[in-house]
Amino acid sequence: DCGFLSTQTVREPIREPFREPVRDGYERLSFSGQKLPPGFPGPFIFPEGLSSIETLLTNIQGLLKVAIDNTRAQDKQVQTEKSELKMELFRERELRETLERQLTMEQKNRVLIQKRLKKEKKTKRKLQEALQFECKLRDHAEQTLQQTGASDRALCDSLTQEVDNGNQGNGRTDAEAAIQDGRLFLKTTVMY
User: Fold this and answer.
1) Cα–Cα distance between 115 and 89 in angstroms, integer?
2) Per-residue pLDDT tens over the stretch 2-38
3) Integer Cα distance of 10 and 19 in angstroms
4) How far apart are CA 40 and CA 26, in angstroms?
5) pLDDT per residue over 99-155, tens digit each?
6) Phi, psi of 55 (to 5 degrees)
7) Cα–Cα distance measured from residue 53 to residue 50, given in angstroms and rounded to the nearest whole number
8) Quick check: keyword Nucleotide-binding in the entry (predicted)?
9) Contacts of residue 174, Cβ cutoff 8 Å, sequence gap at least 6
């Protein structure tokens, strides 16, 4: 028993040079930066390359996580911008509606003011015509008064001259004539 073990341990194993097994062409490719086309069967993973593959997968997972985080951040930013744009659109719509209401009110006011202005112009024209008519009447009345006044003065002057001439012929003085006229006035008032 022991001898058998001892002969085995003493004997040196026969060493043969290690030869890599023959691989297909796609297994010989270096994986540093080359990508396989989609659907292409992956190379057989050998135990000595396992740690670099794990590192590669970890890196890929990290990149995917960063990409997912970036996508989420971009989505969040897009949603924020979208909500801000909606609020801005809402504000602009409210402002536009307010301005349209103001414009409508201004147009109504303008129409009312134009109607008032038209009425006032018409009233002014009528008043102007009435004023011109009154001015013509006044001028005519003044001319009539001036003509009547001139003829009255001429008549008054002629009557005064006749009275003066008549008083001189009778020999009465002005005082006597005034007294005589006063008595006639008194008599006529008493009669009534």
Assistant:
1) 39
2) 454 444 455 555 555 555 555 444 444 444 445 555 6
3) 26
4) 9
5) 999 999 999 999 999 999 999 999 999 999 999 999 999 999 988 888 877 777 777
6) -60, -45
7) 5
8) no
9) 167
The tokens describing 88, both together, are 């801005």
The upper half-sphere exposure of residue 38, i.e. CA atoms within 13 Å in the direction of its Cβ, equals 0
pLDDT for 149: 74
d(CA 86, CA 14): 81
